[in-house]
Amino acid sequence: AEWRRDEGRFRDDDALRAEGIAGVDGTESVWELYTEALVPIVNGESGQYLGLELGARWSDYENAGSVWTWKAGLEWQPADSLRFRTMYQHAVRAPNLGELFTTQSTSLQFFNQADPCSAEQDPVGSGNADKCIA
């Protein structure tokens, strides 16, 4: 069993707020229960081995809910110098603090400048728009 608490904090200032970037403050707590088992089926004297590997985990995230993950595998060793393993599993990734508590879009407002090749930006007819076309 495991319990943990993660905290994240990002403090903004006037310059960041002017660009639409706000500070965030977030916490997440997680309870987890897990178990694993290695089950030998055949364990021969000449190095032969056949075994089963099993595992399960239940995770309960304060902000993302609960989920089951698991694995099941088989290991076969027909001789000392040769071994085969296979595994099948279901796994998930919970969102991190940044994904939970920050805006998921990027705003590049400081790039919101006028297009120098636009005809509207050449009111006196200096020819900038014509140069951009060429």
Question: What does this entry look like structurally?
Answer:
The protein has 134 residues and is mostly beta strands. It has one domain. The protein is 12% helix and 49% strand. The protein has 3 helices and 5 strands; from the N terminus they run E-H-E-E-E-E-H-H. A hairpin with a 5-residue loop joins strand 2 and strand 3 (49-61). The protein starts with a strand and ends with a helix. 0% of the residues are buried.
What structural keywords apply?
134 residues, mainly beta, 5-stranded antiparallel sheet, 5 strands, 12% helix, elongated
List the helices and strands and how they pair.
Layout (H helix, E strand, L loop, with lengths): L1 E9 L3 H5 L5 E20 L5 E13 L3 E15 L2 E9 L6 H5 L26 H6 L1
Helix content: 10-25%
Distance between the termini: 69 Å
Q: How many H/I helices? A: 3
Largest sheet: 5 strands, antiparallel
How many distinct folded domains? 1
Radius of gyration: 29 Å
Strand portion: over 45%
Could you give the order of the helices and strands?
EHEEEEHH
Mass-distribution shape: elongated
Total strand segments: 5
Strand order of the largest sheet: 1-2-3-4-5
Average pLDDT metric: 84
User: Which stretches are poorly predicted, pLDDT < 50 over at least 5 residues?
Assistant: none
Label the structural class: mainly beta
